[in-house]
Amino acid sequence: MAGLESTMELNNGVKMPRFGLGVWKSDNHAARDSVAAAIRNGYRAIDTAKQYGNERGTGAGIKLGLEQTGLKREDLFVTTKLFNGDQGNYERISKAFEGQLKDLGLDYVDLYLMHWPVDKTFVESYQAMERLLQEGKVRAIGVSNVDNQRMAQLIEAADIVPAVNQMEFNPTNQEQEVLKFDSSHGVTMTAWSPLGGGNSLKNPVITKLAEKYGRTAAQIILRWEWQRNIITVTKSVHEQRVIDNSHIFDFELSDEDVQTINQLDQGKRSLWYDDFKWHNPDGPYGDSVAAWDDSNDEL
């Protein structure tokens, strides 16, 4: 039966839940509370990153959620990401990863992603991640924000094909060429920003379908992504919205309506590699972890 415990098998046999909670732009306290709420309400996949500055809060939320539900660590699927500033050789990455485990309060993570393919280091960095996998510190490795050219470079140099490529994916940005290329190599796509930063919620096609099905605009989009077989990471710091976002398993979009949403694709990304500061000095994303007012507070 479809639901929050439904999984998709990755190319190394590991089963990943198809629907999870992300904590981008959440401070540590908000991450703790939303993660715990998600676990209480049936979510089994949690997605964070060192870049977000909230791995401690995410770990606190995991601990709290497990305590409140009686679940075990192995009942959850936890993803975090290699920080751009930590990329390089194995020794550098291994040390950074141990720090991430400490912040998360975990002995291992289920999926470790390269957050961005940083020039001159992303191949070496991925090879270091392969060693973490071989050492049993992670159950699967993958990448994020990787286009076809760089994915081809990684596959050529790697011993282990990435299990996942996490990309911005929503009605107006469907990454058709990346999805086609990755699928042909056994790489599973995961969607970040599945609601298009909220912009897709206002699309008249989506709002009309929401009225037709008696659902929220978010539920229409998330159900569409489910029927497209895209693993989805959605984000909210409000418990009721966390709950509402997961109520997509008791209805189905018609094939015609799926195709209608497919036609909304404009290839419009909210941010992309060429805007990234490590490649463009004027870009907005550099070698720094997001700083929050509560970063040093007790959790």
Give structural notes.
The protein has 299 residues and is an alpha/beta fold. It has a single domain (15-275), classed as Alpha-Beta Barrel (TIM Barrel), CATH 3.20.20. Helices cover 37% and strands 15% of the residues. The chain is built from ten helices and ten strands. The strands form two sheets. Strands 3-4-5-6-7-8-9-10 form an eight-stranded parallel barrel, surrounded by six helices. Strand 4 (45-47), helix 2 (55-69) and strand 5 (77-82) form a beta-alpha-beta unit. Helix 1 runs parallel beside helix 2 (55-69), helix 3 (90-104) crosses helix 4 and helix 7 crosses helix 8 (217-227). The radius of gyration is 18 Å and the shape is globular. 44% of the residues are buried. The mean pLDDT is 94.
Oligomer: single chain
In the sheet with the most strands, the strands line up as 3-4-5-6-7-8-9-10
What is the CATH homologous superfamily assignment? NADP-dependent oxidoreductase domain
Q: How much strand content do the residues show?
A: 15-25%
The whole-angstrom Rg is 18 Å
Structural domain tally: 1
Tell me the CATH topology: TIM Barrel
Organism: Lentilactobacillus fungorum
Keywords: NADP, Oxidoreductase
Protein name: Glyoxal reductase
Family: Belongs to the aldo/keto reductase family.
